[in-house]
Amino acid sequence: MKREKRILKMDERQLAIQGKANGVVMLFLMICLCAAAIYRAVTEGETGWELIALLASFPIMMLARRLYGDVETPRGFKNQPLPTGRARKDRRTRAGNYAIEALFFAVPMALIDVGLSVSSPQEHALLQWMKAWFPTLNRVPLIVVSTLLVFAASFAISYAVRYLVTELILLKQYNRLQEKISDSAE
Amino acid sequence: MKNKRLKIARIEMELSQEDLAKAVGVTRQTIGLIESGNYNPTLKLCIDICRATGKTLNDLFWEESEDEKRKANSENG
Question: Which of A10, A16, A50, A152 could make an S-S bridge to A37, C-beta 3.0–4.6 Å?
């Protein structure tokens, strides 16, 4: 009987358990990274590698799942399967989901910006930049404009990334796989 | 639910849990957990176990319905 080579020398049960344990460790590390990012932001007025590591973890996880062969239906913000067709109705449904997900990203980013602006003794980089451009504006209007800018930029970036990744990569992979399965089934 | 049929098949082949585990490429604990009904193996592992014990999937892993059990009992008398 041909036995598979296993790099980690674990059987399927141990791999499944290790996967769940890895999820717990990842959650713990993300909480620590969040705490470190908030602490540095409040004390030094800027964020550093902690925030980058936190944000990078999501695309890395997506890439890792893809490398291990995961080609699932693209999912929406409630983890519901999204329609995969090219019809107008399907594209509109997907666009609506991207917008809602972008809101879920942009609102916390805006709140973080407000929190940093108000609580930190030092002004963060965006606030300083805006002060240089709008020297006559007081602190409160500056914070409002800064928050709106952060909200708009976060929304745009999140929407664009989700749109590009889903429409150009995930949907194509999924539809290609479906065609392959259908052809081989016949 | 305990998998007594697997245990019986293993004993018939004079295999310990360790022996069967080595034959199919898992740990002894995994075989023990399958026999005690505390782990659901993948289909691939089920097939490997069947090959190692010389049985079929129906023999070891298919749950008989109550009707089938009654029918089997009445045929055996």
Answer: A50
